[in-house]
Amino acid sequence: MLxxxxxxxxxxxxxxxxxxxxxxxxxxxxxxIWNTPIGSGAVYTPAGLGPATHVGTDIQILLRTAATDPExxxxxxxxxxxxxxxGKTPLGFALRVPDDWIVPDAGKDNPYGLTxxxxxxxxxxxxxxxxxxxxxxxxxxxxPVHMPDWMRFPANRKTVSLRGDGLEGGGQGxxxxxxxxxxxxxxxxxxxxxxxxxxxxxxxxxxxxFYSKEIPGWRWPAKRADSYAPKxxxxxxxxxxxxxxxxxxxxxxxxxxxxxxxxxxKLFFALQNYxxxxxxxxxxxxxxxxxxxxxxxxxxxxxxxxxxxxxxxxEVNRLMTALHVVDNNGPSRIGGGGKPRxxxxxxxxxxxxxxxPANLGGGAAAAPAPKAEPPAARTPRPGAAEAWKERxxxxxxxxxxxxxxxxxAAFGGEATVTxxxxxxxxxxxxTGGGLARVRWEQIGPGEGLALxxxxxxxxTAADHALVAFYLIxxxxxxxxxxxxxxxxxxxxxxxxxx
Length: 498
Known about the structure:
Number of helices: 11
Helix content: 10-25%
Radius of gyration: 24 Å
Strand content: 15-25%
Structural class: alpha+beta
């Protein structure tokens, strides 16, 4: 096989960084985890990674939308395997997307695998609001978009700023880290320009990721690990978990590692100067690079071999086995601190300034509007909050007894109640985060509202009354739930002092 000419690494090192950047192509602030270079203060710990029998990609679905795109309904995606587009339940919001934007269903005809993660990052028409998640599907031109059921909760579809720190917003199911941040973009594995950001690589978590009660399979900046981590993570190195930042040591060279290809050297540059985060489980003996859709097509056109070829596998294995964990990576010393190995990311282009923030309550916002003041705080009468919380507990126990615990947005994600004791203490399963015990005393006004919403049976007056009470308690408008509370409405109102 004739390999593409390999440019010297010095050409990448010497390449002057651009003076401005497009936030969509190069997102997040210069001091974000994705753009901060490895520093001279980095403490390197051997990662102990071995070669894999396979190398491949985990495809991210990235979309930049416009105000002229038609608005389409978002429905649930009820399965992990084939049938993601079979959902019929509206999730309570819409998205503006081009009619020709297609994301195939899971299954044998999907080019990205039988059960692709289908993580997505959608830039809304305001040019700044970023919606991230997983398991997106859209099989019909002009049809609805399908997303996971938990996106029906507003707390699970909060957008983040494209120009922010890139820590929030989720998308990577195992770790809860950003779907957009760290993704290798079109154009980055071809040409001479270096990759000037951290990247993401999926490990075989059962082999490499560590789990214990003290180190529960993740570390900052990850927010969690896979729900099966307690049973499946069998790694022996406590430094290797979801959220670990791994990098090549300063004295590593492409020549010493035996790299033979241009993309291998480009990846070397990124791994030595910015590092790679573990954010998702590959679930088998492979190293998967997280890339934008069609990067794999561009790669083979430019280099003459595929991203799952033996040639690329050998290059990636040489790099992975040389990685070390930057063990002192943390909020106050991203990349280990000290003098950064590369200059900071440049300012954003002024013509790409953000517009009006989008609102996914029921579709994208179309025009600026004055910021609404929250309703005035209302004080519950003595004993009222306790009485309504008892009603919430009774309703919860009733639901548990029916065999299906409610889902609710709380504690930074989605929780499903799997069991409840008579005193109200809960066992909940966090999305991607395993089981947790929640004492009834921990259920405050915000969690109470989320639970009431998760327990709501449309048209049941008592349930609407419960939601209305907690909306008022959280300084939010109770309409239209108060209107549907029937005979319970006066009791809701009388629960608060004038």
